[in-house]
């Protein structure tokens, strides 16, 4: 009997498909199964497609690709349709795909297969070892979508393994799941689920040599899945491993390699207590899940490496605040919010200085030290690299004993020269035959090589006296939190940011940190995070500083960071909410309070210099004086003090050739304080009281002081003079009563 007669007797047809010619050939039985006359037929791929349900035909391509990748047979169930789009029958097709190279370098696929009519089981029938059709396809698609979404949201290897352990596939849920990771020349078990055996049984599979006779190792070596439908298949192919596996009482196993971009990461195992046929539908689901799992593990590995790199950079570049300083406390915070590797250009440092204070040469704890805070332009790895180099240079210059202005001048020259060298390197190269033309940089490369600047504030501290010598390079001014809980910005002299000009001057400002006061240094990220500008950012932080006045320094630091990044930070969004977030560096320095204080002790004291070339600083002095007196009992006295200070400073700048030195001091408890403001200059000419006319533009200074001040005077000095006034704090009605009594006495 001929083979064709045997196949016809079994209602089995033959077919072939050549993708190069795109023609499909059927024998007589195959044509009959398609509802065509029972004779050999040749159809185009489009005509053949019209004979099948469109959903089934669309799955053929995926099944064929899977069979080619696994070097197995392609098997599918197809519903045959008539001309009225009614289902005639369901056929089962099995074929062997063969890849044929073409002369033009492309590839064609030839398929040779069989087609046989099958009877669909009733909906309530359960057939072990066969795939489930019908609605299971829709359930499978929903399952794959949910799995892909869950794996895409996993941020770490632990989360990926948790998702993998919770997989419940429609129609054939695995009873045991395991993930093996490739580590060198071995496989390491990194996750398993639903393993009810004793821990010592699991230990046997924690590490598998890559050359071992195990299905997991073979899947990695070959890059192809291993499907074991029965225990007999497992025992026959892997007898050495079977003696350890048979006690688990499982019926089928699938070992699918985890491959990403051609690189094998490990193996995913799905095992079943019942026997599974591993139909093309089931293999397709397993392969798709393995592909998504591999991509998720690769992403998680990259993210964890970046986090580890970020933490390593932070640990190496963000030093501790050093040893304890007698009489002072230091606290620091660094918050990377720039994204990417979570590193940026912000930094802080604490540097012991040689000699001075109570410490011997070499910077013993208790001697002078320097605090540095800065911000290199940018939020990328290059900014972090420049920050590291600049921080080392600053430490070197400070350790040599240079003053603050010299340290910043040298640092600016260093950064400018460093970037000039980096930008020039590679633009012109020399070869034996002569110079090579400059390289053409892309826009991205030019952005990376573009010069960067850095803002910086360098502070030299003498713990014995509380003296602060400050040099500032385009950085935000420091903030002083006084003993009475008032937070004020202390204006300081400043120069250009580092790296803009090779030779820049950075004048030094001397302040004194009184016992019990706290100094805050920060980068602009603390002020501007949340879409704020410097003014609105300061308005947000000032109440936090004053609220936590007197609290431990670590508590204050946490409160400031919480105000910017805490749960309630979204309630105080600034006017620039679309601005990119910035990194944050924060330094707090507190001078320990004296053991006992009386009502006559100094609550706060400030000293400022107004140069002839900087008359605009008069407005800064007025603003700072108003901030210091914000809780003064009588608001009219604040206006009077502001007016008198403006008059005194203006007279010095207009009528002398020197600078004006202002010293303001308040003593006493709230409600009974005494304010004394003194302005000194180098001129020996004493002011005289005059009676200016109505149109005169000057000459009213002493008259204002006599009217507004509780006491005032002019004191000659060895070189120059000092003009001063005093205001005594009291309630407004009490002040007006005294003024009325004074007017009556004059009458």
Lay out the secondary structure.
Elements (H helix, E strand, L loop, with lengths): L2 H7 L2 E7 L4 E4 L1 H6 L7 E4 H5 L4 H17 L3 E8 L5 E15 L5 E12 L17 H18 L3 H9 L10 E8 L2 E8 L5 H5 L3 E3 L5 H8 L3 E3 L2 H7 L1 H7 L6 E9 L2 E10 L7 H38 L10 E8 L10 E7 L16 E8 L4 H19 L4 H21 L4 E3 L2 E3 L6 H7 L4 E9 L4 E7 L5 E3 L5 E3 L18 E5 L5 E5 L1 H5 L5 H14 L5 H13 L18 E8 L10 E9 L6 H12 L6 H21 L4 E8 L6 E8 L19 H8 L2 E6 L4 E8 L3 H15 L1
Antiparallel strand pairs: 1-2, 1-6, 2-3, 4-5, 5-6, 7-8, 7-12, 8-9, 10-11, 11-12, 13-24, 14-15, 15-18, 16-17, 18-19, 19-22, 20-21, 20-23, 23-24, 25-26, 26-27, 27-29, 28-29
Helix pairs in contact: 4-11, 5-11, 9-10, 12-13, 16-17, 18-19, 19-20
Question: Care to describe what's here?
Answer:
This protein is an alpha+beta fold and 747 residues long. Helices cover 35% and strands 27% of the residues. It has 21 helices and 29 strands. The strands form six sheets. Strands 3-2-1-6-5-4 form a six-stranded antiparallel beta sheet. A six-stranded antiparallel beta sheet has the order 9-8-7-12-11-10. It has a five-stranded antiparallel beta sheet with strand order 13-24-23-20-21. A hairpin with a 5-residue loop joins strand 4 and strand 5. Helix 5 (136-153) runs parallel beside helix 11 (280-317), helix 16 crosses helix 17 and helix 18 (617-628) packs antiparallel against helix 19. The chain is elongated and about 140 Å long. 32% of the residues are buried. Residues 121-134, 195-199, 356-366, 424-432 and 438-448 have low confidence and may be disordered.
């Amino acid at each position: 009997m001929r083979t064709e007669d045997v196949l016809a007797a079994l209602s089995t047809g033959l077919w072939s498909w050549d993708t190069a010619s795109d023609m499909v050939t059927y024998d007589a039985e195959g044509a009959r199964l398609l509802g065509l006359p029972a004779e050999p037929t040749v159809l185009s791929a489009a005509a053949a497609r019209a004979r099948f349900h469109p959903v089934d035909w669309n799955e053929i391509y995926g099944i064929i690709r899977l069979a080619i990748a696994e070097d197995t047979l392609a098997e599918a169930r197809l519903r045959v349709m008539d001309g009225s789009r009614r289902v005639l029958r369901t056929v089962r097709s099995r074929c062997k795909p063969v890849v044929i190279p073409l002369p033009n370098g492309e590839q064609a696929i030839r398929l040779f297969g069989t087609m046989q009519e099958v009877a669909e089981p009733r909906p309530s029938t359960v057939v072990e070892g066969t795939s489930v059709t019908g609605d299971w396809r829709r359930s499978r698609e929903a399952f794959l979508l949910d799995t892909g979404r869950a794996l895409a949201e996993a941020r770490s290897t632990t989360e990926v393994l948790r998702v993998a352990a919770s997989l419940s596939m429609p129609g054939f849920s695995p009873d045991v799941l395991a993930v093996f990771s490739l580590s060198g020349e071995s496989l390491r078990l990194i996750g398993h689920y639903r393993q009810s055996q004793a821990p010592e049984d699991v230990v046997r599979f924690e590490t598998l040599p890559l050359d071992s006779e195990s299905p997991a190792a073979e899947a990695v070596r070959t890059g192809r899945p291993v499907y074991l439908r029965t225990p007999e298949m497992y025992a026959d192919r892997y007898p050495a491993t079977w003696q350890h596996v048979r006690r688990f009482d499982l019926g089928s196993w699938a070992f699918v390699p985890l491959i990403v971009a051609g690189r094998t990461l490990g193996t995913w195992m799905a095992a079943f207590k019942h026997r599974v046929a591993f139909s093309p539908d089931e293999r397709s689901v397993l392969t798709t899940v393995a592909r998504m799992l591999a991509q998720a593990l690769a992403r998680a590995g990259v993210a964890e490496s970046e986090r580890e790199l970020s933490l390593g950079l932070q640990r190496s570049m963000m030093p501790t605040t050093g040893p304890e300083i007698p009489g002072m406390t230091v606290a620091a915070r660094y918050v990377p919010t720039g994204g990417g590797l979570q590193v940026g250009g912000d930094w802080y440092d604490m540097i012991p200085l040689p000699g001075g204070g109570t410490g011997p040469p070499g910077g013993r704890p208790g001697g002078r030290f320097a605090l540095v805070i800065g911000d290199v332009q940018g939020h990328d790895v290059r900014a972090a690299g420049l920050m590291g180099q600049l921080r080392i240079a600053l430490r070197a210059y400070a350790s040599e004993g240079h003053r603050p202005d010299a340290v910043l001048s040298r640092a600016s020259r260093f950064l400018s020269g460093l970037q000039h060298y980096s930008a020039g390197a590679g633009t012109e190269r020399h070869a034996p035959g002569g110079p090579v033309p400059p390289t053409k940089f892309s826009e991205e490369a030019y952005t990376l090589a573009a010069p960067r600047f850095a803002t910086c504030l360098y502070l030299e501290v003498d713990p014995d006296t509380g003296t602060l010598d400050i040099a500032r390079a385009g950085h935000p001014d420091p903030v002083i939190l006084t003993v009475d809980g008032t937070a004020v910005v202390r204006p300081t002299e400043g120069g250009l940011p580092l790296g803009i000009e090779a030779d820049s001057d950075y004048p030094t400002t001397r302040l004194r940190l009184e016992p019990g006061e706290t100094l805050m240094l920060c980068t602009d990220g603390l002020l501007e995070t949340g879409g704020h500008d410097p003014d609105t950012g300061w308005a947000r932080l000032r109440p936090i500083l004053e609220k936590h006045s007197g609290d431990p320094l670590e508590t204050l630091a946490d409160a400031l960071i919480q105000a910017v990044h805490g749960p309630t930070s979204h309630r105080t969004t600034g006017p620039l909410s679309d601005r990119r977030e910035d990194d944050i560096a924060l330094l707090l320095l507190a001078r320990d309070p004296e053991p006992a204080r009386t009502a006559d002790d100094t609550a706060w004291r400030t000293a400022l210099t107004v140069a002839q070339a900087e008359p605009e600083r008069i407005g800064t002095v007025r603003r700072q004086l108003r901030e210091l007196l914000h809780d003064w009992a009588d608001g009219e006295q604040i206006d009077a003090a502001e007016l008198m200070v403006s008059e005194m400073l203006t007279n010095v700048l207009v009528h002398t050739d020197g600078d004006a030195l202002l010293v303001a001091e308040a003593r006493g408890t709230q409600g009974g304080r005494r304010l004394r403001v003194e302005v000194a200059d180098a001129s020996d000419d004493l002011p005289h009281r005059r009676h200016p006319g109505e149109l005169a533009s000057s000459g009213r200074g002493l008259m204002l002081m006599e009217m507004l001040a509780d006491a005032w005077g002019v004191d000659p000095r060895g070189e120059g003079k000092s003009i001063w006034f005093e205001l005594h704090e009291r309630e407004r009605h009490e002040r007006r009563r005294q003024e009325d009594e004074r007017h009556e006495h004059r009458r």
